[in-house]
Amino acid sequence: VEPGLLAAADYLDRARREGLWRGFPTLAGTSELWVSGFVATHLARADAPIDLAPTVEALLSRRAPDGGWSYGSAVPTDADSTAWCLSAVSRQMPDEESARAREVLMEHRVDDSFATYRAESGIGDFVGSPPTGVLGWTGPHPDVAAAVLLAGVPEPGTPDEDRFLGRLVSSANATGLIPSYWW
Fold first, then answer.
1. CA 3, CA 46: separation in Å to the nearest integer?
2. What residue spans of 51-177 are helical by DSSP H?
3. Full-model pTM
4. Which of 1, 24, 103, 127 is the residue whose CA sits 20 to 30 A from 118?
């Protein structure tokens, strides 16, 4: 293992609290769920030398009642957080719980893409905004669609996946980059 990867894994391991990483403060609070799902997914894909079991356990114990995850424990469920958390924990979930998380993601479908929040999620009330103030948050986002597709939703190898991938690829700009709403 490369020294840089070892040092990074050691730093990240020491930065966790109760199995979770925490992001910076925002108006929605500090993310502990989205950021932990995102980081754990990438560490696993990099085969980093870090025990992810505490993070997986923490994420599994903090699912919302609807079967998804959110940016932070007080925020309504969203597709971006659910996709990253599902990617991080799917191998350790019972099939029926994984299926429910996939259903949550499909509930965020907008045409052939995915919105971060469903219009009826309560995100407007949470941030103190009228429904028109969160239209961007409830519209389709290519960056969220990419995360959902990486989580294996829709089912890989299906016509639905092909359709969503086609929409994602067609959103690329002239340089081949996909626009991002959130990051």
1. 14
2. 53-61, 79-89, 95-106, 123-127, 135-138, 142-150, 159-170
3. 0.94
4. 24
